[in-house]
Amino acid sequence: MNVATPFTTMTTSQTVDAPSTERILENLSHPVLALNAEGNIVYANSAAEASFGGWVIGLNIRDLFPGFAPASANVAEASSLVLVTKKDVAYDATLTPLGSAQFVLDLRLSTGPQQLTIVPDLDDLTGLAKRNMFMSHLTGAINRDDSASVAVHCLDLDRFKMVNDTLGHGIGDLLLKKVAERLTGACRKGDIVARLGGDEFVVLQHEVREPADAEKLAARIVDLVGRTYVLNGHTINIGVSVGVAMQGDFTQARDILRNGDLALYEAKRAGRGRYRVFEAGMDDLLHKRREMEIDLRRALALKQFELHYQPILDLSNDTVIGFEALLRWKHPVRGNVPPLDFIALAEENGLIVKIGEWVLRTACLEAASWSDGMIVAVNVSPLQFKADTLLETVASALEKSSLSAERLEIEITEGALLDDTDNVLQTLKALRELGVKISMDDFGTGYSSLSYLQKFPFSKIKIDRTFVASANADSEAILRAVAGLGTSLGMAITAEGVETAEQLARIRGERCTHVQGYLTGRPMAPEMISSFLARPKPHQ
Amino acid sequence: MTASLYRLVYYSRNHVSGDAAEFATHVDDILAKSRQNNRRDEITGALLFNAGCFAQVLEGPLEKIEATFERIQQDDRHGDVSLLALNSIAARSFPNWAMGFVGTSNGDAERFAGISASSGFDISRLSGDQIHTLLRDLTIEEEAVA
Ligand SMILES: Cc1cc2nc3c(=O)[nH]c(=O)nc-3n(C[C@H](O)[C@H](O)[C@H](O)COP(=O)(O)O)c2cc1C
């Protein structure tokens, strides 16, 4: 007899006795809330009270679900969303408008992690998705059975920190908002732009039929984000570096993002303000660089560095007046690692500051044992200037070694003068006041702006070896011009990389005052110096 | 209370290709939109172009100028937008033009030479008339090197 079961014997007469909607609501096992236009809770059923800890009427919905953000401004239709409480309990929710700016929110405990709905998790400042939300979108897109694939663009703003430091966080935040707008504007509807933190953004591009589609967007991003901003009357120029990774056959969300990061790293290394597409070799490269970095970090402690010294010859009397200290890395497995292979890396990770300090101290100590008056020239990286400790390091190296300041020559490259010039000039002046000589290294290789020579009275200009090596008319003209200029500014001129007697003869004719090179002396270990100085004059 | 007035001057490279008629359509379109928006935003100014470049003066409340420039900046119809000046001004130079327009490049190099010698590129010291001349000359210069 199934008449006894209440569910199967509904008759029209019973609908008359139907319980009040209020009672039904109160007896539902899942929470139901009603909200007004401001999101304030105006009704909560018992399940809601029980689930959210008592009296919730009068609270704002964001007090329960901090991330509450209706999917669209279109409030005319019901929308489903996933809401997460402060205690990370997730609900599948349906928000239905009741008219007159009221809503009912029907909440069911989420059934598990495999749900496809995406938890809205938005960045307060820009309104863009945050990392978790981005990852869910990416995972969803990859798993979708779809012939078109996706691309991920990892972005890093160039010079953002400078804007923040010089114009303040207020402007920095405004700038981030504008960047977010431009990114959104550059993308198609459905693409996801997210802010991962700080000045790091990432874009998920859908419907990438061929790599060119992704490259096109990357190029557009570089162009658009790099255009001038006008904010509160300030004109701001920043750039963006982009790393692009395409969805491969077996890629996971995390892999794509990592590949994008690797490509971003390459874009930054290549000079920023550009994009790079991930290539298979990139992880290998990075891996090698990481290993090198680990070795480099240990090298100082393990005393793998040495200084060798290359003689500097005064052309007026053909005598050696001192030596340039050159860094050598003797690695137990790699062997002799040339500076070209590790200096750039040391500059990238900042190790150069520590290494440079060691070089200064060691060079001063060793030079102090040389015969009277011999100078020692030491290369200083632009980063050492930025580190703000250079002056202190030099002063203490001189003091500890008892080397007189006139015997130390600091060599800087144009790179040091490129940015933050005022600070650098101050440091240079302070160094000169200590009595230290300052020379401009590698002149002719970078911007070679003559204004650098005017900004600071260098004691010496070192002309890059390329102008010495090539015997063509142009190189000679440049050599002559720089030598003439230096002479008239009262600066000594060193020609570097002199290897043949013919080159030496040519340089003598060009008003250079000093030379350095294999011909006049190869770099040597410190213990060779005394015998080198004791030998009879070799040249002419 | 009226917000203080600002003037922004830029020039850019024209990306609109096609024949004269097509170009004219684009310019008409830009002008129509500009006049409509600028009237709303209390912006006045002038736009000029020749075959290679646009140059524009925008004057009005800073906030509006910034928002408008942000839109213009991202417009596909031009690129390489170079901002020449952004400064506060005492009065408008184009009070009656939601967007005035000078479209032909009649060489006025001598007159420009006089202006640039006396005031360089200090736009704020130029009258509206002089700005025209300056901008026109910039575009002529650009055309010559293009
Ligand atoms: C050279 C050039 C000058 C422009 N000048 C203006 C302008 O003065 N005011 C303006 O609102 N839009 C100007 N625009 C158009 C904007 O780039 C943009 O298309 C328009 O402001 C969009 O308006 P809407 O959002 O109302 O559709 C200009 C575009 C170009 C290429």
Verbal overview:
The complex is a heterodimer of chains A (about 550) and B (about 150). Chain A has about 550 residues and is of the alpha/beta class. Chain A is about 40% helix and about 25% strand. Chain A has three domains: about 110 residues, Beta-Lactamase (2-Layer Sandwich); about 150 residues, Alpha-Beta Plaits; about 250 residues, EAL domain (TIM Barrel, Alpha-Beta Barrel). Chain A contains 21 helices and 21 strands. In chain A, the strands form four sheets. In chain A, strands 13-14-16-17-18-19-20-21 form an eight-stranded mixed β-barrel. In chain A, helix 17 links the parallel strand 18 and strand 19. The termini of chain A are far apart. In chain A, about 35% of the residues are buried. In chain B, about 45% of the residues lie in helices and about 25% in strands. The longest helix of chain B is centred in the N-terminal third of the chain and has 22 residues. Chain B is globular and about 40 Å long. In chain B, helix 3 packs across helix 4. Chain B has a five-stranded mixed sheet with strand order 4-1-3-2-5, sandwiched between helices. In chain B, strand 2 and strand 3 form a beta hairpin. Chain B has about 150 residues and is of the alpha+beta class. At the A-B interface, helix 7 and strand 9 of A face helix 2 and strand 4 of B. The site of flavin mononucleotide has 16 residues of chain B, from helix 1, strand 3 and helix 2.
| Oligomerization category of the chains in this entry | heterodimer
Structure summary, number of beta strands of chain A: 21
Q: What compounds are bound to the protein? A: flavin mononucleotide
Q: Which blocks of ≥5 consecutive residues of chain A have pLDDT under 50? A: 1-14
The CATH topology of the largest domain in chain A comes to TIM Barrel
Tell me the major beta sheet of chain A: 8 strands, mixed, barrel
**Whole-number average pLDDT of chain A?**
87
Strand order of the biggest β-sheet of chain A: 13-14-16-17-18-19-20-21
**CATH fold category name of chain B:** Alpha-Beta Plaits
SSE order of chain B in H/E notation? EHEEHEEHH
Strand content of chain A: 15-25%
Write the CATH architecture name of chain B: 2-Layer Sandwich
Shape, per Cα inertia axes of chain A? elongated
Number of helices of chain A: 21
Radius of gyration over C-alpha positions of chain A, nearest whole angstrom = 35 Å
Low-confidence stretches of chain B: 103-128
